[in-house]
Design a protein that fits this description.
alpha/beta, Protein-Tyrosine Phosphatase, Chain A, 5-stranded mixed sheet, about 10% strand, hydrolase, lipoprotein, protein phosphatase
């Protein structure tokens, strides 16, 4: 799904991010997790374009770049500018294996803890950038997992990210995300995060102990309605 040209333009251009944004920002999609941590979904840089990305990374306070496709640029360029590069490749159009999910969540937990301490002196939220080839499949899936781990309703998360990044996710990835089960670690942390305002507006938090059985019918209805809207009823 995300193996189309990284230079393809969409009929619904994304708004530029912040003041003095460069044309490159049209390929960026910022998704907030909370007041001090956010994600930047993007297409893949190349060695010839990496300097443009680095300028945006500095402006957006990007601390890490997670790439889930094969390398298209030298990581040393980013690391020399204080940006950590993480390689978690998995197959185009697929969902991430457990090993990738575990490593992804470890990065988030580490940066969130650091960002929460620095937010008073650093007004710009910490940003974790993630990309596949076009930023439409594998990268958005990881961001959706992160938001779901925070207790957000997965159907609402999918819809929110698709509004930010038109064309994100394929059928298989949506099925995976709708049925994604939060880790025990994330469930134990929800009580510490519940006082934070949701950056996704009216997204509903799931139960701290997981999705209750009484809500399964409602969840299934939402799931089917979402598929009907996105795929014309074919799932």
């Amino acid at each position: 799904m995300d193996s189309i040209s990284s230079h393809q333009s969409f009929s619904n251009p994304r708004k530029q991010i912040g003041k003095n944004a460069t044309p490159l920002a049209n390929s960026f999609s910022l998704v907030e997790m909370n007041a001090h941590l956010r994600f930047l979904i993007m297409d893949c840089p190349t060695d010839s374009t990496i300097s443009l990305y680095l300028k945006e990374f500095a402006r957006l306070n990007v601390t890490d770049v997670v790439r889930v496709c094969e390398p298209t640029y030298k990581a040393e360029r980013l690391e020399a500018n204080g940006v950590s590069v993480h390689n978690f490749p998995f197959k185009d159009g697929e969902v991430p294996p457990n090993s990738v999910i575990t490593s992804w969540l470890q990065i988030i937990n580490k940066r969130e803890a650091e960002a929460a301490k620095q937010i008073q002196v650093q007004p710009v939220p910490t940003t974790i950038a993630v990309h596949c080839v076009a930023g439409l499949g594998r990268a958005p899936v990881l961001v959706a997992i992160a938001l779901t781990e925070q207790g957000q309703d997965p159907v609402a998360v999918i819809d929110h990210i698709r509004r930010k990044r038109r064309g994100a996710f394929n059928n298989k990835q949506i099925s995976f995300l709708v049925n994604y089960k939060r880790t025990s670690t994330s469930r134990s942390r929800l009580s510490l995060l519940k006082n934070n305002s949701s950056p996704i507006g009216n997204l509903k938090n799931s139960s701290e102990s997981g999705t209750p059985a009484s809500s399964s019918a409602s969840k299934d209805t939402n799931y089917k309605s979402f598929f009907k809207k996105v795929f014309g009823g074919h799932n």
